[in-house]
Design a protein that fits this description.
Shape: elongated
Strand order of the largest sheet: 4-5-1-6-7
Radius of gyration: 32 Å
Number of helices: 7
Structural class: alpha+beta
Number of strands: 12
Largest sheet: 5 strands, antiparallel
Number of domains: 2
Helix content: 25-40%
């Protein structure tokens, strides 16, 4: 079974949470397989640190004193036991079945996986795996895998018109505008002091339309890195009563015109 097929099988295999998680690093250095008897000291230190960081995460739901590590032969492998109560750890391992999930797991664990992915792309023989004691692989990071932040690729540059009410303008060091939208959400829109100084109208606490540049998340519609491009005058709302009156007058004026007048005009008979 080649490397790519093995990676696919490992991805679809269902995780079975237990009290044991095996972390393994495979590589070839100086024409020899990395293992307990053949590993650069710096690589050993980095891998041990990564394993500890992945286990602990940000929530500290694991007591390091209760986790026992054993070093196994065959590769550089640490086997951690005493993990049966580590709910967030197992939830993150399950989420990692989807490569585009680094934004969904604990940020410290995501950083470890991102470092492993970068290292595996630099070193053609490098492979990291998370597995159970029986060898069933939960996560495999190698040169063919693509672990990434699922949101990172969905931010696109846009230019938009935003309508709302300005609640604050200015700033001594960083100039910005606070715009309250109709739903109550307040957006902070960066600007230059010169652009705000050139504005002749007092727009504070008044309805406004702002032209901005930003980055928009294609999944959620969220905006970030907003920059003010200019102010626009809000479009005058349609006076429905006046419009109805115009329609009434027009209908009345055309009441005596024959129905076929326009058709005859087009045919040259009118």
């Amino acid at each position: 079974m080649d490397r790519q097929i093995t990676c696919h099988v490992a991805t679809i295999r269902r995780m079975k949470p237990s009290a044991t998680l095996r972390f393994a690093l495979n590589d070839r250095i100086q024409d020899a397989e990395v293992g307990p008897a053949h590993v650069p000291l710096a690589l050993l230190g980095r891998f041990q640190k990564d394993v500890g960081e992945f286990l602990a995460g940000s929530g500290k739901d694991i007591d390091p004193n209760q986790v026992i590590l054993a070093i196994e032969e065959g590769s550089l492998a640490f086997v951690a036991t005493g993990l049966s109560a580590a709910a967030s750890l197992w939830a993150d391992v399950e989420r990692l079945r989807d490569p585009a999930s680094l934004d969904l797991i604990d940020p410290k664990r995501a950083s470890v996986i991102a470092r492993w992915q970068a290292a595996a792309r630099r070193h053609p023989h490098r492979r990291y795996t998370l597995a159970d004691q029986a060898g069933a692989t939960f996560v495999r990071v190698d040169g063919d895998s693509d672990y990434r932040d699922g949101k990172a690729a969905t931010w696109v540059p846009v230019k938009k018109y935003l309508q709302g009410r300005i609640t604050d303008m200015g700033g001594t060091s960083k100039a910005n505008v606070h715009l309250q939208l109709d739903d109550g959400k307040v957006l902070t829109i960066a600007s230059t002091q010169q652009r705000l100084a050139d504005e002749e109208r007092n727009r504070l606490y008044k309805p406004a339309v702002l032209r901005v540049s930003a980055e928009e998340n294609l999944r959620s519609g969220e905006l970030r890195n907003l920059m003010l491009l200019g102010f626009e005058d809000p479009q005058t709302r349609l006076d429905e009563a006046a419009f109805d009156e115009l329609v009434r007058k027009g209908t009345q004026a055309w009441a005596d015109v024959p129905d076929d007048w326009l058709e005859n005009l087009r045919s040259g008979q009118g």
